[in-house]
Amino acid sequence: MSNEATTLEQSHDGLDAMLPGVVDQVALARLYGEPLFAMPRDLYIPPDALQVFLEAFEGPLDLLLYLIRKQNFNILDIPMAAVTRQYLSYVDEIRASNLELAAEYLLMAAMLIEIKSRMLLPPKKTAEGEEAEDPRAELVRRLLEYEQMKLAAHRLGELPQYGRDFLRAQVYVEQALVPRFPDVHAVDLQSAWRDILKRAKLVQHHKISREQLSVREHMSIVLRKLQGRRFVEFGELFDVSRGQQVLVVTFIAMLELAKETLIELTQAEAFAPIYVRLAYTPT
Questions:
Q1: Nearest 5°: phi and psi at 273?
Q2: Backbone dihedral region for residue 150 (phi beyond 0: left; psi -120 to 50: alpha; all else: beta)
Q3: What's the CA gap between 252 and 226, in Å, rounded?
Q4: Residues 6+ away with beta carbon under 8 Å from 133
Q5: SS (H, E, C) 78-116
Q6: Within a 13 Å sphere around the CA of 258, how many CA atoms are in the beta-carbon half?
Q7: What is the model's pTM?
Q8: Beta strands in the chain (DSSP E)
Q9: pLDDT tens digits for 140-163?
Q10: Which of 136, 94, 95 has the alpha carbon at shortest distance from 114?
Q11: Which residues contact 120 (CB under 8 A, 6 or more apart)?
């Protein structure tokens, strides 16, 4: 028993050495799933690994407008010395990290210095005897135009946008519970008619006779064939043994019945057989 107790005590001491000294301490981070309670002493962080930009500007005019509005300067009477000094300090900061970006701001810095130097010179009168324009006038016009465009863009951004502020509702509504057969296209009807003509040519004869054919009579014949039957195949309504003349009159009679909405032509799917049925319930 004494040897087992000694072994357990040594294992407990080794586990205490692996655990952090303070049990309730919050882990600073997790490294490969393990909690990290203290910063590593041999951790190397490159100087440019982390950069924090408190203010992001879209260009030299945006920076200049920010400096003026932040200090409540009158945009019509800009203190060029203070604004130029603050502007140059910002340009010096970005030159250390991004020289290409700083080139855009250096042009504005040169313009500010030029305006400041022109203000130090005595004003020159024009040929008409009028005083020369304020050196800051052109810069003020550009700042005012830029501020107007920036405010307009901000107002446009606040408008509700599809996908960001709202979504279009889509609801499926069942219009009718009764199954509706698709309409028969003219091409399918034409193909079925050609098949009937081909079948008629197979049984044609050379007997010449004259027969009085009536479209109304064949309309009645078609209606009688459809009575008491739910669906009749399109080809069953034609008597191919009587010749093409009767087939043509029967087809015309069916077209008239369909035109007067007395019959309906239906087809279950594309290239399926065409069926005919009464469009009304006989009394």
A1: -60, 150
A2: alpha
A3: 16
A4: none
A5: CCHHHHHHHHHHHHHHHHHHCHHHHHHHHHHHHHHHHHH
A6: 17
A7: 0.39
A8: 29-31, 34-36, 232-233, 263-267, 274-278
A9: 888 889 889 888 888 988 888 888
A10: 136
A11: none
